[in-house]
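User: quick one, fold this
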Amino acid sequence: MQVMKSLFISLMLLVPFLKSYASSLKDSTTVGLNSYNDTADVQVYSPTFSLMKTLSKNFLIGVKLRVDTIAAASFKNGGSPAVVDVVTGASPKEGTFEEVRYAPTLTMAYEDTNNALSGGVYYSTESDYEGRAFFINYTRQLNEQNTAIGIGISQSDDTWIPAFDRNLPRDDRKEGKIDMSINQLLSPTASIQFIYSLMYSEGFLASPYNYVKQDTFAKFEKYPETRTAHAFAFKGIVMLNDRNSINYSYRYYADDWDISSHTVSTEWLSDFGSSVTSGLRLRYYSQSDAFFAKDVGAYGLDDQYFAVDYRMSAFDSYDIGIPFIYKPSISSPYKVTASIDMYQTTENAYIKNWYDIDKITAVYTTLSIEYDF
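Assistant:
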């Protein structure tokens, strides 16, 4: 389940409705529902809830709860007649398995005229994986608030608990990330942001369940135990007029597994009347393969590493989405945000081998209702 959960979360991060707790301190509560459905017969439904409470003019605390419910139908591996389940690797009982992940987050934020500091702790639990993390973000406004510099740090310390009796080389997975950014107001109608990210992972970084099966042997998926990555990005916003704006971004990523990627995205937003904002967003992603990823069927028994996950191979993907924001009036305490996106990969031999389909097509949605009190 961890592989599909990672894909689902990465797609959700494309949606530009993530809230910054330190941007405007106010009492609020939010309920929402995210969903993901793809042609590999995986369905994810994630209800969310958050409560933010100001303790003073400058200080806020909050709690969020996310529940991921996954229904992963069985599929064939490598075209073989043996049917396995995406979660446990075992034969299905009734054609589908259910998995639930609970993920509470405690947050705190401080804000004054030129400084914003936020942070928190995160915990998640599911039948085969336990996650713990902390994060902290600081932003300083300069140059009469026309410039902002920021730094963010996060660190996770997770544990694998395989659903069947398997001795892993190690059962931990740790991931750290540092983001440094500078945001500059170029004019009253345009701004640009530059971001550098350093990411480091160590531990058991593969899936306990994926395996390579060839004519004479079968081997569990195995990756190097460390991974270091760098990413450079820029993002911009341009107000075309009182009703229309364009958001754009580009990101370059490279790691020591020899995976490099390019991500280009743009979003148009327009006010349709005084209460509704909507538009269109597009995203294109392209990556190279890892140094240890071989053609399907080309692995040998003496190979050091084995890959099954298509995200270790070279592929492209496309995303098209429609965002939606409804606020009855400027003074209304209610706001509704929603979106629907379609995601599709190019044809890929790894996808064909594991899922028995040429490419993955997915539809994911978000819906949240916020009330300020």
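User: anything notable?
Assistant: The domain at 2-372 is CATH 2.40.160.40 (Porin).
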